[in-house]
Amino acid sequence: MSIDILNFKVAGYRYAQQYRSPSDIVQVGESLILKCNQKNIYDDHSVEIYNCRMERLGYVPKFYSQKVFKMVMNSKEYHACVASYRDLDYPLINVSLKISSESTSSDGDSLVNNLLTGS
Hints:
Strand content: 35-45%
Helix content: 25-40%
CATH class: Alpha Beta
Number of domains: 1
CATH architecture: 2-Layer Sandwich
């Protein structure tokens, strides 16, 4: 099993959350949920990012969206989490995304644990 790791800033955070500080809605290490949005008129491969309370944080940046979109649509196992955030005048959230080369199995929890531990 190979693992790709992508690190990126959440795109569109300021628009999705208006003036809420990242520290009000996420914690470092918090797992994130990715959802494909095929109806986005700006990006055919749009992938939305949600926190565990299903509050939309923004999007995977367009530079990575096609790869991540295909990964989610092909049921590849992944783990996305908050790597860091900044609460200043220009708030941002950094994401770390680990993608397995294998498809989701019935034992998805063990695959996620393998991704997190690197085994």
